[in-house]
Amino acid sequence: MIKNLDYIDEEVYLKEKSLFFNESWILAAHKNELLNNNDFVTFEYYGNKIFIQNFNGTIKSFQNVCLHRFNTIHEEPYGNRVSSCLYHNWTYGKKGNVVGLMCRNSFERDHINELKLKEYEVAFCGDFVFLKLNEKLDKSLQQYLGNIFTPLQEISKHFGAKTIDYTIEHKVNWKLLVENVLECYHCTSVHENSFAKMGFGSVKPEKFDFFDAHSWCEFPKGEDVKPNKIIEKSLAGRTFKTQGYLHFYLYPNAFISSVEGKGFYFGFMLPESPSKTNLRVRYFSSKFEKELSESEQNIIDFINNSSNDSLDLVLNEDKKIVENIQSNLVNFKDHSPIFGDEEFRILKFYEYFNKQKNKNRYNESI
């Protein structure tokens, strides 16, 4: 299985980094973040600065570094403006080429015309935006996601407007974050004031599916939980309804979840070192079958704010636990964690991940 050393060792971390770049598509955004011309989203992945932008209706992705003197083009995590470096106003178009700069005649024309930002291939699963970081990867996005593609495509259509977007630093190895979200075995003890009160964690899931390291699972709601009639009435017109807590893990770095279709969490994991991982947190409201009145929208805004607070509580409860675990591993390097039947998605994840690591070792040796 896995040794605790694998959560703290620099050499292991660097090999995993190579695996991520060579073998995977990554889920980076939702189309609702890129609806308007010049809308953009940025992130930094293992030191690589990347932006995704709407260029007059075409979504493209490029390295987020100006080719003039290597300043960052977009410094904000999201926004709306042309892809122009704020140092000397070099501006880039949808082909990654320089389309505007000050004092153009002072530069060699042919050289400027040849310059292009490094581009990343973009593909879509419904309204989810994926990037391929390694151009040599010979799998299409649909091949990469397998049978997870269709249910993921379906849920993507029901996202409403983004309500929050922030990042939480975790002093942990990325795998601890993955393990934590792949089970609800801890929900009744760690989340007694959130998930447990909503009735999750006490009933064993019966609906789930896997493809390679990707998986989805629906955690049922306890039968003794009474619904909030005001919330239920206000959200009755939402376009997506499920009876439980629906959770997707998209290898290697993304989590999508929803409690009964009442809103949608999009977690984006950004490893920085063996013991540091940033978690970008985005939350989207529900989509509704018809346009809401002002009073109805006010109620939905209140519900969304409450959901945002609940999400923040859950994430920080988890953060405390996984950071405690990380701090203890140095004294148990040769030990391994123990996973039981309730943690079956973790076992499936490692079954695939260890196979990929062994394949990578073999390729390095020949």
UniProtKB/TrEMBL annotation:
<keyword id="KW-0560">Oxidoreductase</keyword>
<dbReference type="GO" id="GO:0016491">
    <property type="term" value="F:oxidoreductase activity"/>
</dbReference>
<dbReference type="InterPro" id="IPR015879">
    <property type="entry name" value="Ring_hydroxy_dOase_asu_C_dom"/>
</dbReference>
<dbReference type="GO" id="GO:0005506">
    <property type="term" value="F:iron ion binding"/>
</dbReference>
<protein>
    <recommendedName>
        <fullName>Rieske domain-containing protein</fullName>
    </recommendedName>
</protein>
<keyword id="KW-0408">Iron</keyword>
<dbReference type="InterPro" id="IPR036922">
    <property type="entry name" value="Rieske_2Fe-2S_sf"/>
</dbReference>
<dbReference type="InterPro" id="IPR001663">
    <property type="entry name" value="Rng_hydr_dOase-A"/>
</dbReference>
<keyword id="KW-0479">Metal-binding</keyword>
<keyword id="KW-0001">2Fe-2S</keyword>
<dbReference type="InterPro" id="IPR017941">
    <property type="entry name" value="Rieske_2Fe-2S"/>
</dbReference>
<feature type="domain" description="Rieske">
    <location>
        <begin position="26"/>
        <end position="131"/>
    </location>
</feature>
<keyword id="KW-0411">Iron-sulfur</keyword>
<dbReference type="GO" id="GO:0051537">
    <property type="term" value="F:2 iron, 2 sulfur cluster binding"/>
</dbReference>
<dbReference type="Pfam" id="PF00355">
    <property type="entry name" value="Rieske"/>
</dbReference>
<dbReference type="Pfam" id="PF00848">
    <property type="entry name" value="Ring_hydroxyl_A"/>
</dbReference>
